[in-house]
Structure formats: structure tokens, C-alpha cells
Write a structure and sequence with these properties.
The structure is a homodimer.
Chain A: E1 2-7, H1 11-22, E2 26-33, H2 38-45, E3 50-52, H3 55-63, H4 72-78, E4 81-84, H5 90-100, E5 104-107, E6 119-120, H6 122-125, E7 134-137, H7 140-156, E8 158-168, E9 184-185, H8 193-201, E10 207-214, E11 220-228, H9 234-242, E12 247-250, H10 259-268, E13 279-282, E14 287-289, E15 292-299, H11 306-317, H12 322-333
Parallel strand pairs in A: 1-2, 1-4, 2-3, 4-5, 5-7, 6-7, 8-10, 12-13
Antiparallel strand pairs in A: 8-11, 9-10, 11-15, 13-15, 14-15
């Protein structure tokens, strides 16, 4: 059994913790929080071992009537590997602590590629994690782009990928974020960082991305223009993506015409928190004009990297092939194959 | 003096009517409305000659205590040319009435290209209107794309234009339209009609467009990827667009990072209704990677076609060169050159 700790219990940490509990080969040793807020109470109600981030944090927990089992350092002694789901940049600060205690570590997409030297998407580079001490699971948008572009590259050879990413501006609980009635260029200076980030996983892909922020909370929406080397047709592209793990084809003829209907579909799938771990590709949006494939896809920003985090734990601790880990993760999270 | 009637007094009709009043060579003979709503009262308060659409409509006006001067047919007898700003498809029905009375007519982008055989953007094809009886001013998005792509084509030769259009889902007064919290693929099937529509004005441009709808009201936001034949650089592209009439360069270093700030800028310009007649191109978003120019631009959907409507009146009735008409329209509407 792999003993795993989760440092950070926000959008990603909470989901990773629950996903670890579902795996037959993993034990959730505990979760770490800085503040004694309602999320900390959720961890207590789930009977997870709760740890404070440091002595100062521990005091604030005690003042709130919560009794963590100790601090991050105490938890680290109990684990084989730690998943760091702390806010952007905090992971980099924590990495030294993990290193000093000789613990393997997984970081999220908010950290820089150079922190670990390996940016990870299960189906693209699982084997590169072998023998490593740490890796970085890339962000939601990068994960989605890698799954889909890697699939098309293997099937048809990708010459050039262009994507315009229309981002949800806030997660559903982030009431202080805007905008209310605007499209924000995020950033104005081009290209956006996503293309560069894809190349940390797929270094040979020619990709340029642009990104906007709009007043929605459900999902990111990607408009893709991908030119390929091999002559193909819409059916072949659909078939290829349909066979790709963690890619779900949706169709407007079934009433799915916006991110809201994809989110509604995800609710019906019965997953915890209505999470959609798959990239949702509109099958009937796929159109080929000359050598370019055009289509839309939706990305549930809160959920898509969860299977990657689980696979990453196995990739770093060993004992599983890529296919074995992906199959097991999919089964335990309820991801349907093909 | 050119005697002009405006049939339809909604988003476009109201603006065209006001713009006609500002022109030294035009007289607004009257405006036509179907329903006696608050917009009809606005026309009365502005002392515009108000006409009902037909006898039935006239009765409903009388019941509301308003006394139009007659019906559309009465107005048509008074005019040299009519601007049809009726809802999509209604213009096509009206065209026979105009034809029967031998009146020149301008239609809007909701009508099909084939209705008139000429899709019009002032700076692209003003001269093609000479001797014609009617034309169609293209829609807001098409107008914006034509202005910018035509400019880049003349300067550098456009090889291929790709655009992802993120549309405001509703005008500010349309309270019954959604979405609230979703990105809608509009349409799901690709490509969107905008590329085809650009080719009704610029037939030699290779253009493919995709379009989404988001919960904002201010402006459409275009993400553009344009590959050009001639080697160029960002400064040359900026200079070229800066010199293009009805294109306004904005800059994030001046705090303009979203459609909301462009709209706020438009309010400060002191135009009626805070209208922005220009396409707003983010100068500091312009980036060249290999042979592709990337940039963002904003389109005020309610206002951008107003100068085109004014020029179209002159183009159909004669007596002005393209440059003379554009210069006069710009001056009267307060559009700054260069």
C-alpha cells in the first residue's frame, strides 16, 4: 500500500484526497490545511487525518475547537509520497521540506516546470516518471490539450496546433472574482502560456494559444484549429478521439450545445461533486477544411487533473505500467473506456 | 439633399436615423415602427416623422394615443432611398414593396447576400454600389473582419485568416436572452457563417471562423490568426492598422484589458449612446510568430455598421467618391482619422 499525504485541501486537494481513498493500493495518511474553515470541518467529518500547515496554523485550529493530529512535518513522517495542492508558488517553497525528509512529491500546474523537470500527463509520458523523486501534474487546460493533441499526433501527425481558450473566470465558490459583464484578454500580450506549457509535455508540437476570461463558472471552452500531416476525414478523427482514454465525445444532436449542458451531463453521471474527469469534445463540431481539423472541447477545470494525480502517485512509486495504472484509476473513478 | 426613410426603429434603425440627421447632405424623411412602444415615443420626442408599418399597425398607434403621419407606403412616396433596419428576414419581404415603388434600398446583415447581390463595407467596395438599386450592409462581425483583413491584405497580402468570435449573447436591453453561466457554441457545426459572409465582400480571402456566445452585453471579441505573404513585423502591422479608417488601436498599458474598458472608453468619447463606430484592435496584443499575425479586437455590435449605412446611402445615390463619403461620415459622426 502506498501511503499518501495531501498538502492543501482546496479545489484540487479535496478531490485528490477522495480519489486516493477510492484506490485499492493507496492509503490517505492525512490532509494538511492552513486555516480552520468549513473545508477543514469537511475533512474532519470525512474522518480524514487532519494536519495544520505549521505551529502557527495549529494554534488557530485549536482556537476554533479543532484538533489536528499535528503539522505538515508530522504528516510527512507517515507518508511515502506527498501531493502538494497548495496555491501557486507555495509548492515551490514546500519542495525543500519534502526534499529534506527524502519524500517523493507531486506538484500541480501552478508551479513551474523547472521545479521538478517533469511535466506529467498520464497518457503522454507516464514512463518518464520512473525513478524520479518528483513531478508536476500540468494545469487543467494543458492536460486537456495534451490528451487530445497527443492522440491526434499519434493518429495523423500534428503539423500545427492553434487554440483559443475561453476560460471560466471563477470556480463556483469564488464570489469575489469578476468579471460580471466583460470578456477579459488574459493576457493581452500573446501568446498565452498554455502553448508553452503543452510543450513541457509534448516538446515536438508546434502550438500557439490565445486565452480569454468570461463570466462563467462551469468549464473552459477551447476552439481548436489543428493541421495534420496525414490526409484524414471527420469520421476518422472522431473514431480516434473516441478511442482515446479520458476523452468523452458529446453531440449537439443530443442537446449538448454549451458548457452548461456538459456540466448537467456530468451531474447525471453520478460522480462526486458532479466532476467530469474527461475532456468533452463535441463530436459533431469536428470539421476538416483542407488540412485543418476544427473542433470545440470543454474542460472541467476542477476535475480533469484528478486522474493524472492518481496515476502520478503510481508512476513515481513504481510497480505499475502506464496501461495498468490508467485502467485502475479509470475503474475506481468511474471513467468509462472508449 | 438626399431624402432618406428608415424602416425599423430598433437597435440599428434608431442609430441610423440620428446619424442621417447629422449629415449635411441628407434629410430624414421619417421612421417606421410596427409597435407603439417606448421607442416610438422617443421618435416623437425627437420630432421625427413617425410612420406605422401598415394599416393594422396604424390602428394600434391610434389606440395608444400616438398619431403617425401614415404608413410605410406613405413614407416611401417621400423618399429617394429607404434604409431597412427591420428584423432578420423582414427586409426580404419588404424588398418587393420598395421595388414596386422604384425606391433604392439598403438592407442590413440579417438579410441574405442574394437579396441585393452586393454586400457592402465602405472601405472595401464603395464603388461597386454605383448604379445599383440596392445593397446589403453586412453584420457587425463581418464589417469588423472586412475592415481589418482588407487593410492587412493590402499591406502584406493575406494568405489565410482564422478567427474565433466570442459574441456578446444579448444587447443591453434584451432581458429575456441567456445564457447566464455558460459558453454556448453558436453554432456547434463548423465553420460559423462569418467567414462565408466576409467572402461576400472580399471574395478572394481564405477565411474560416468559429463562434461562441458568452454572458456579456458590451461587445464581440475576436481572436485572430492571420498568415500573410509578405514578411513583416509587429510595428508595421500596428502602423498599417493605425492608418486604417474606422480602426482604433487600444493598449493594455493604458488600462484597457477587456471589452468593459473599451466600452468605458467609448462612453468617454462623448458619442451618442456611447457608441463605438470603430473596431478596437489591441495594439499590444499584436504578435507575429513565423508567418502568422495574432491579435485581439473588440466590436461594438450596436454601432459599428452605422458609418457603413451612411456611406451606403451616398454610394447608391451617387455624387461622392469613396474617400469623400468616408471623410464626411467620419467628420459628422466624430470618428477621428489615423
Amino acid at each position: 500500500m502506498i501511503r499518501v499525504g495531501v498538502n492543501g485541501y482546496g479545489v484540487i486537494g479535496r478531490r485528490v484526497a477522495d480519489a486516493i481513498v477510492l484506490q485499492p493500493d493507496m492509503i490517505l495518511a492525512g490532509v494538511v490545511k492552513v486555516k480552520p474553515d468549513y473545508k477543514a470541518r469537511i475533512a474532519v467529518e470525512k474522518k480524514y487525518n487532519l494536519y495544520a500547515s505549521d505551529e502557527e496554523s495549529l494554534k488557530s485550529f485549536h482556537r476554533s475547537g479543532l484538533s489536528p493530529k499535528g503539522t505538515l512535518e508530522d504528516l510527512l513522517k507517515e507518508v511515502d509520497i506527498i501531493v502538494d495542492a497548495c496555491p501557486e508558488g507555495v509548492g515551490a517553497q514546500n519542495s525543500r521540506i519534502y526534499e529534506d525528509l527524502g519524500k517523493k512529491a507531486i506538484f500541480e500546474g501552478g508551479e513551474e516546470h523547472d521545479l521538478t523537470g517533469l511535466s506529467f500527463v498520464s497518457q503522454c509520458n507516464f514512463d518518464d516518471a520512473k525513478g524520479r523523486r518528483s513531478l508536476r501534474v500540468v494545469s487543467c487546460n494543458t492536460t486537456a490539450l495534451c490528451r487530445v493533441i497527443n492522440s491526434l499526433d499519434r493518429a495523423f501527425g500534428v503539423k500545427r496546433a492553434r487554440a483559443v481558450i475561453v476560460r471560466r473566470a471563477a470556480d463556483p465558490d469564488e464570489t469575489s472574482k469578476g468579471p460580471i459583464d466583460a470578456v477579459v484578454l488574459d493576457p493581452v500580450k500573446l501568446p498565452s502560456h498554455h502553448g508553452h506549457d503543452v510543450r513541457t509535455v509534448l516538446p515536438n508540437i508546434d502550438i500557439v494559444t490565445m486565452a480569454l476570461k468570461v463570466p462563467t463558472t462551469h468549464m473552459h471552452l477551447h476552439s481548436l484549429i489543428i493541421s495534420v500531416k496525414e490526409k484524414t476525414n471527420e469520421d476518422k478523427v472522431r473514431d480516434s478521439l473516441k478511442k482515446t482514454t479520458r476523452v468523452l465525445l458529446v453531440d449537439s444532436r443530443e442537446g449538448i450545445k454549451s458548457t452548461a449542458q456538459v456540466a448537467d451531463l456530468a451531474r447525471e453521471l453520478g460522480r462526486p461533486r458532479s466532476d467530469l474527469y474527461e475532456v468533452a469534445v463535441w463530436g459533431d463540431s469536428i470539421k476538416i477544411i483542407d488540412d485543418e481539423i476544427y473542433f470545440y472541447m470543454g474542460v472541467h477545470q476542477e476535475a480533469i487533473v484528478i486522474p493524472e494525480n492518481i496515476d502520478a502517485i503510481r508512476a513515481l512509486t513504481g510497480g505499475y505500467s502506464k496501461e495498468e495504472s490508467i485502467r485502475l484509476t479509470n475503474k475506481m473513478l468511474g471513467i468509462i473506456e472508449g
